[in-house]
Design brief:
This protein is α/β, with parallel strands linked by helices. The chain has 2 domains: 94 residues, Elongation Factor Tu (Ef-tu), domain 3, CATH 2.40.30.10; 127 residues, 3-Layer(aba) Sandwich (Rossmann fold), CATH 3.40.50.80. The protein is 20% helix and 33% strand. The protein has 5 helices and 11 strands; from the N terminus they run E-E-E-E-E-H-E-E-H-E-H-E-H-E-H-E. The strands form 2 sheets. Strands 4-3-6-1-2-5 form a 6-stranded antiparallel beta sheet.
Length: 245
Amino acid sequence: MSSVWQVAEVVGGTDETDTARTIRLRVEGLMGHLAGQHIDIRLTADDGYTAIRSYSVASAGMDGHLEITVDELPDGEVSPYLVRNLAVGDQLEIRGPVGGWFVWRPSRVNPVQLIGGGSGVVPLMSMIRAHQASGNASPFRLLYSLKSPHTLLYREELRRLERESAKLTVDYVYTRSTPEGWPAKPARLTADTLLARIFPAEENPDVFVCGQTVFVEAVADWLVMAGYSAESIRTERFGGTGGIQ
């Protein structure tokens, strides 16, 4: 982990959706990172103006590369550039990876329940990838709440990982529109829907919740009221005041 600014080179990129892109970076001296950490990116304009934004790391953290997935904000200062203009060979100023609370470690033996709203799935994907790479036998479940099939990140990889691994289960909640043939109408996540699709409290899962602030606070409240230990719930939230995904 580094608390100083350093240079990262863009070595690859993949479009996830019409507005989201995964960016692969090579960082000199990086010896891996913890699943769930984030980095800061600093962009500096010609007139000296700087903008700094934090992005969760999506990769598993096994080598000197890391990946972030950026969802473009229509009025953003940084995300449109990263999604639309950044090219292989470009360099970015980054700081990190940082964070030691919202992380999953392969030494843990408890079942793991991941709950993501929208792009809040990004650090949870890092945990899924790290879990798959580690050989850890703990079961993982992901409850992924998103607006529509068009906003689904890591579509093919999640399908493949769930198909290939008996340790991973993925459930989706679509709030605005659903895939063709989906067995339920679109609806916002509720406490009843949540509790029906996650590990029960008596199994003592480690729970990680990430998304917009209102989403995270609502989910955490539902979990505590349902008997989940507050100490077992770890949350990560990002800006915006939108409601439940």
